[in-house]
């Protein structure tokens, strides 16, 4: 059988390349102001976005370097060299003290902006964890504990961010409030959320938020989150309500999406079509439990094969895992593991599932896997080693399974984030 792994990887790489800051940012950068450009960036693409902004203002426009300043806060291992905008590497998915200090400095820089200055905010996925500024009365340790509980709950990212926004001094429009003396606040964002909701990207630090403290309390109850009393008090305190439409903070604020998951999925689809596959596109906004979505997609693949169709099934979005075991992994690895369990006696079907940022779950290291691949070599190795995918699924231990089979996808940091890409290639048996 032909090795389809190079094609799977080419499809994934096309999705990532379409959203790289070097490709998408410069055309959207605003003109230089009378005063300074103060660049505040957060997320997995933050350093790459800051470096691209530097090239635009310093090299293309010839801006005096003294008029460009700022801070980019990114995930550990995602930093790149910069000249004027300082880069801080911080914790993700669980925040750390580097992110705590960086968020405080970010708020200070925003507050120092004058009526001659441009506040340029560059956002990408991961910004919610990178910018950690606990609400008054909530300790850093308590905020970390809330993040861990949310990550294990199976809640979709939008719901996680509702809780985060109401326990923060920077999220939910509060960064705009801190910088409202600037001449203009321009936010350019790479979307990592289903349906591209601006208030969900990095928890919406510069846009109005329609969710409420009541919503946040309801989610704590819905997922039976274990939180400290200080957190419950904060969610009862009206001073922690997020910024709503009409707030003066947004009078001179503009938001623009510069890269969306759909554009990346379209780039991936083109590669699959050019390779001769009939594409079934399931959209860029899928949500749901990873193993359940995998079961649905496996059925689609088996049906296509039974009909003798050479088919590529592609989808984006962000799946979730309700953690019940003690293993390691992320939603893409769990999806691939569930596929392996269903398709283990099948030939002619291969798959890749990976996060476009290069990290699927993991411990916050730059060497975390992006996801996993499966094909006939996976199934053969699984049988030779006596591995039971169902047992690994029960323990949420996809990383250990694919470490044993040699099928982890290791890309390193990609410096962008437009959610996940899942590809199933079906050839007639």
From TrEMBL:
UniProt entry keywords in alphabetical sequence: Pyruvate
Top-level lineage group: Bacteria
Statement: the UniProt record of this protein carries the keyword Lipid metabolism: no
Keyword ATP-binding included in the entry's annotation: no
Molecular-function annotations in GO: glycerate kinase activity
Pfam assignment, any one: DUF4147
MOFRL-associated domain ranges (all copies): 8-235
Gene Ontology cellular component list: cytoplasm
PANTHER family assigned: GLYCERATE KINASE
Protein name (record): Hydroxypyruvate reductase
Organism: Bradyrhizobium icense
